[in-house]
């Protein structure tokens, strides 16, 4: 009796083969394209609008959006990879770990920016950070819930 083998690199159905029927590959591509589109649009609008008129608001906007990306992308990857597992508890563990990670990193990012950057444009940072957090989380939920619905129908 031989152990089951996983698809090798480049084989049909493997994550790197370019097979469009692989839901993980297409979902990840949609997340990457959505995150890229949001990264161009939202900070761009905030940079043009400068809603608070703070000195160095560009720094706050870019640092806030960048921090949101650094927190949300790994969280998305953690949850999506856990959905592919046959272990029923893996998703719950990944979701709880992702939530805790988001909470701790959010507090750390805001505190580090406000305390370590001299004359920090904190309003711009917080606005860009939480816009990024909410929009990227919405994108993540839209893509992962759609997968859950498909699995329930199958």
Q: What's the alpha carbon Rg, rounded to whole Å?
A: 19 Å
Distance between the termini: 30 Å
Mean pLDDT, as a whole number?
83
Sheet-strand content, in percent, reads: under 5%
Biggest sheet statistics: none
What's the total helix number?
4
Order of helices and strands: HHHH
State the secondary-structure class. mainly alpha
- How many β-strand runs? 0
**Helical coverage, percent range:** over 70%
- Ranges with pLDDT <50 over ≥5 residues? 6-20
Task: Please explain how this structure is put together.
- This protein is mainly α and 154 residues long.
- The chain is 73% helix and 0% strand.
- It has helices at 23-49, 57-83, 90-116, 122-153.
- Helix 1 (23-49) packs antiparallel against helix 2 (57-83) and helix 2 packs antiparallel against helix 3 (90-116).
- The protein is flat, with a radius of gyration of 19 Å.
Layout of helices and strands:
Elements: H1 23-49, H2 57-83, H3 90-116, H4 122-153
Sum this structure up briefly.
With 154 residues, the chain is mainly alpha-helical.
Descriptive tags:
154 residues, 73% helix
């Amino acid at each position: 009796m031989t152990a089951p083998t996983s698809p090798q690199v480049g084989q049909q159905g493997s994550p790197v083969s370019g097979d469009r029927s692989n839901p993980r590959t297409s979902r990840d591509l949609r997340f990457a394209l959505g995150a890229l589109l949001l990264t161009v649009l939202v900070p761009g609008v905030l940079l043009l609008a400068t809603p608070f008129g703070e000195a160095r608001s560009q720094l706050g906007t870019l640092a806030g959006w960048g921090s949101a990306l650094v927190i949300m992308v790994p969280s998305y990857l953690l949850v999506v990879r856990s959905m592919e597992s046959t272990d029923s508890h893996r998703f719950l563990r990944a979701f709880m770990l992702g939530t805790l990670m988001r909470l701790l990193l959010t507090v750390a990012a805001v505190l580090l920016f406000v305390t370590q950057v001299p004359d920090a444009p904190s309003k711009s940072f917080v606005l860009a950070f939480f816009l990024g957090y909410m929009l990227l989380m919405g994108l993540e939920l839209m893509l992962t819930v759609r997968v859950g619905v498909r699995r329930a129908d199958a």
